[in-house]
Amino acid sequence: MNKDYYILAIETSCDETAAAIIKNGREIITNIVASQIESHKRFGGVVPEIASRHHVEQITFVLDQAITEAEMTWDEIDAIAVTEGPGLVGALIIGVNAAKAIAFAKGKPLIPVHHIAGHIYANQLENEFKFPLLALIVSGGHTELIVMKEHGKYEVIGETLDDAAGEAFDKVARVLDLPYPGGPRIDKLAKEGSETIEFPRAWLEKDSYNFSFSGLKSAVINYIHNKKQKNESINEADIATSFQASVVDVLTEKTYKAAIEYDVKQVIVAGGVAANSGLRTALEERFKDSQIPLMIPPLYLCTDNAAMIGAAASVLYEKEVFADWDLNANPGLILK
Q1: How far apart are CA 160 and CA 141, in angstroms?
Q2: DSSP reduced 3-state for 18
Q3: Percent of the chain beyond pLDDT 70?
Q4: Which residues lie closer than 8 Å to 180 by C-beta, 6 or more apart?
Q5: DSSP string of 160-201, one letter each residue
Q6: What is the CATH number of the domain that holds 225?
Q7: Which residues pair with 324 in a beta bridge?
Q8: What is the pLDDT of residue 1?
Q9: Residues 57 and 142 placed together within one structural domain of the fold
Q10: One domain for residues 136 and 255
C-alpha cells in the first residue's frame, strides 16, 4: 500500500465486546474491551443469551470510545472489519450488524474476519511473520496446529478430537469449585503444588498432530470423585499442577515435533490459553536450543480483543477481499 490506512475492527464472538482501530495492520491506535466476566461468574461459564444482551448494551459505547480515544473521525477510517465466526451465534450477530450499519452509513468497505485468524494475527502486532510458520491455537473452543506458507493461507495439520484445552481447564476448575474463569485459577493454583499424580497424556496414533483432552478431563474428575467417596483429603494444588502438566506436555511436544517436520521459520502461539504461564514457560524451554524463533503475544493480546481482528483484516484489505451487505454471523465458520 502506498499510503497509511486505518481499519476499525469489531469483536463480539463470545463474552467480550471489543472495538479497535489498527494502522496498516501492525500498529494499535486504540483497543477497547468491555468484559462480561462478572456477569457470567455466578453461572460458572458464559450464558449465551446474557452475552448477547450485554453486547447490545455495550457495542455503541465501545465504538464511540475507540473513535474518541484515537482522536479520529469516521472519515479517516478506511474500512470496517468484524468477526464473522466462529462463536456464539447471538453474540456474533450483534457485531456483524453493527459493522454492516457503520460500513453502509459511512460508505466504507466491510471486511469479514475469522476469529482464529484474528488470534494468529495478534502476533503480527508485535513482530513480522516469517514463512512458513507454525501456529499453535489454544483457547476455550479451539486447539489446533496450523501451517501458514503465506499471509491469509491456513493449513490445519492437527485439531482437537473432543474437548479443547481451554474447555478442559474450565471443566476441571468447576469440579475443584474454583470461580470462573477457570483457566487462570488453575494456572495460579498449579504454582503452589507438585506433580504427584500420574494423569494420562493422549498422544494418539503415531505421527498424529491431533489432540484429545476428554480422557484427561474424565481422569481428573474421577480421581476427585473417588477421593471424596472414600472421605480422603484432596490436595487441590497438586491436582492442578498434575493436570496442567499433562496438558502442557502434549501441547509442547506436538508443537515442537510439527515445527521440525514442517521445517518452519517461526512458531507462534495464540488464543486465551496462550496466557497460561506453565505453557509459556514449557514452550520457551523446549524451543530454547532450537533455531526456530518462538513468538508468544503479551497477555492482553491472548484473550479476545478487536485489535487482533483488525490485524487479520489488513491482509484482506490489501487484497480487496470485502463482504457484501448480506454478510451474516457464521458460528461454524471454517478456517481455510
Answers
A1: 9
A2: strand
A3: 100
A4: 37, 40, 41, 43, 44, 45, 170, 173, 174
A5: BSSS-HHHHHHHHHHHTTPPSSHHHHHHHHHTTS---S----
A6: 3.30.420.40
A7: none
A8: 62
A9: no
A10: yes
Query: Which domain covers residue 259, as residue numbers?
Result: 131-296
Q: Compute, in degrees rounded to 10, the torsion defined by CA atoms 299, 46, 119, 75.
A: -100
Which positions ≥6 away from 222 have C-beta within 8 Å? Answer: none
Rounded CA-CA distance 328/310 in Å is 18
Segment 17-23 shows an average pLDDT of 98
Encoded amino acid at 177, one letter? D
* Contacts of 88 by beta carbon, 8 Å cutoff, 6+ apart: 13, 14, 46, 48, 51, 52, 331
Give pLDDT tens digits for 36-92.
Answer: 988 998 888 899 999 999 999 999 999 999 999 999 999 999 999 999 999 999 999
Classify residue 29: in a domain, yes or no.
Answer: yes
Grid coordinates belonging to 205: 496414533
Residues 216, 159 share a domain: yes
Average confidence score pLDDT of the chain = 96
- Give me the sign of the Cα torsion angle 164, 169, 172, 178: negative
pLDDT one-digit tens code per residue, 304-319 = 999 999 999 999 999 9
